[in-house]
Amino acid sequence: MKPLKLLNFAESQWVQGQGNLVDLPSALTGETIASTGSGGLDFKAMLDHARKVGGPALRKLTFHERAHMLKALANAIMARKEELYALNYDTGATRNDGWIDIEGGAGTLFSFSSKGRRELPNGRVLIDGAMEPLSRGGTFVGQHVFTPLQGVAVHINAFNFPVWGMLEKLGPTLLAGVPAIVKPASATAWLAEAAFRIMIEADVLPPGALQFIAGSTGDLMDHLTCQDVVSFTGSAATAMKLQSHPVIARESVRFIAERDSLNASILGPDAGPGTPEFDLFVKEVAREMTVKAGQKCTAIRRAMAPAEHLDAVQAALAARLAKVTIGDPREEGVTMGALASIDQRNSVREAVAELAKSARIVAGDPDRDFGTGSFLEPILLRSDDPWGSPAIHDVEPFGPVATIMPYRDLDDAIALANRGMGSLALSLFTYDTDAARDFVLGAGAYHGRMVILDRTSAKESTGHGSPLPVLVHGGPGRAGGGEEMGGVRGVAHYMQRTALQSAPEMLAKVIGQWLPGADKPTGDTHPFRLRIAELDVGYTLKTASRTVTLEDVEHFAHFTGDTFYAHMDDEAAKASPIFEGRVAHGYLILSFAAGLFVEPAPGPVLANTGLENLRFQTPLYPGDAMRVELTVKSKSVRDEEKGEVRWAVAIYNQKDEVVATYDLLTMNRP
Ligand code: NAP
User: Average pLDDT of the chain?
Assistant: First the structure.
């Protein structure tokens, strides 16, 4: 095949890099697959294009509109996934590895799209937490909000997952309304470029939203400002070099670092040979060593077992690894492909040599000659003195390599896991809830994600090594101190949190959500007769009042079976520290509230879908009256057929004391 010429996508144009191009070899044959280079690009102009064209266009869109774009991008990738699978093999990956990268990447975009439509408002400001009252009279309040950064997200990606690594960063960035410049790792850039091209050709993004650098980043870092974010995945050495760039330090440029990590897995003290957890542990360690030829930032590098079970672990692991078939992943029956490049294999061999100074190789031959390509056998090392072998906790072999080691008790295992000085993922295989509790408290501070696996979750578990879009990915210390994804948390990384202080009505208008203390205008039309487009935030229905009688309480108690003492036994109720006598049921009050505010005829309100944040604040006694104020708190159109309205409901007694408050959710016609 004629080598591909990778192009840059700069200032909304595909451009060929000038000057010396770098040849990128196939991991399988060593033949040149593509050439790449970014010579001649004007990096400052690229940043300006993103800031002046892409950013403003993205910020005009609502979260929901951006979420729809993500879905369209994911659909475009899925529709052309076979083109990507065809390019995947020469990165050394099997079809299964490619599935994680390509369909896992599209799945991540789908997930962010869905989160965006379900959990974010159909607006442009993200509200963070509840309103904070700041004054006695309620006329001055505080509210935290997020608004999109007005700069550029510079994404620098690692070579191991060229598609997923790009998309897991783009999902939250674009959802936040921030344009991105993507710089893939050179070693597998042809696959990243193909996926990027599919997204551009899908033509769903505004101009300037995405740009691509197929080579070095030149002087790009020199032109960053406090509105930009560098989101980096790669080695600790490069991260440190970039993080200490004077502009990044001087301008406080946000820097998210996902670095290397000596992830560990612990076989629980209870999980000896013969238990389901033992088998799961062995299977998972072997899987983590061989998926993507061990080139996963989350892969298990250190496997710990009770000293008395270490021999059994070694034997079982060696037997599993012996079944791995290494070779050209296009061939039937091959279960592990090659490392991404000869350079990569060299650095793994060097790491193994370093580890072998204080641990011994018990399975696999690091020097086995495969002829062409960058293949490497899975290597299992064993250290019987884990506290006397610093290298096993410090040196990351970024390939199919792991070290097994013994521990004395769970505290010792936790201390060994923490000795990695910060990791992305830690797992424990146990069926013992006490061990799991000690594990979480003892190790949580050192690890970004912790997985407790046992027989009950074995079938459905996503395993030790899979970062998920809805959970945070990242870890403290050595892992870089960064955090990515985690659903809406990941979106906030590309936004600025600001504390707003003002009058409730002013803030409500600014954020598009009614706040306690803001105006409650009323009108002649019942709000249930209005479609979402006709409903103004703050519009309020004030109902008539009704008296709640003892007969109502009796009837409700016997009708529902809820004869709790507080409603039925006057003496006992009086004896409680809360009530002055028999009280109306909370659920009766809610039911009467619905009876007061509902407009029954079929209309724009399709269904009641939920009720949140319910608080009963003042007891309602037989003979008391109640009335309701129903206020449009926020509204959000989902599609052409429906949307959600959130109503703030307040129930008052005849003394205007608040009896109960809650948010009512309804599905409405738009
Ligand atoms: P690397 O050499 O640090 O490269 C990472 C990225 O940085 C590549 O895109 C690289 O581009 C770029 N880069 C290198 N020097 C640069 C510079 N001076 N300015 C701007 N960009 C620069 O990392 P690697 O060895 O390829 O990747 C493997 C490492 O990544 C492993 O240690 C692994 O643990 C880590 N990793 C971590 C995660 C995570 O989520 N925490 C995920 C995957 C991998 P070029 O390729 O063009 O040099």
Answer: 96
Say which of 103, 193, 258, 484 is annotated catalytic.
Answer: 258
The protein residue with its alpha carbon nearest to ligand 1, atom 10, reads: 185
- 132 noted as active-site residue: no
- Of 259, 286, 309, at which residue does a domain stop? 259
- Residues contacting 467, CB < 8 A, separation 6+: 168, 298, 424, 425, 449, 473, 484, 485
Count of Cβ atoms closer than 10 Å to residue 13 Cβ = 10
Q: For the segment 600-651, what is each residue's pLDDT rounded down to a tens digit?
A: 999 999 999 999 999 999 999 999 999 999 999 999 888 888 899 999 999 9
Which of 242, 259, 276 is where one domain is finished? 259
pLDDT higher than threshold 90 for residue 2: no
For 380-409, what is each residue's pLDDT tens digit? 999 999 999 999 999 999 999 999 999 999
Helix segments in 431-562, DSSP class H? 433-443, 488-492, 504-511, 550-560
Q: SS3 helix, strand, coil % of the chain, rounded to 5?
A: 35, 25, 40
Judge whether residue 317 has pLDDT over 90.
yes
Residue at 397 is within a domain: yes
Query: What spacing in Å lies between the alpha carbon of 15 and ligand 1's midpoint?
Result: 24
Number of domains in the chain: 3
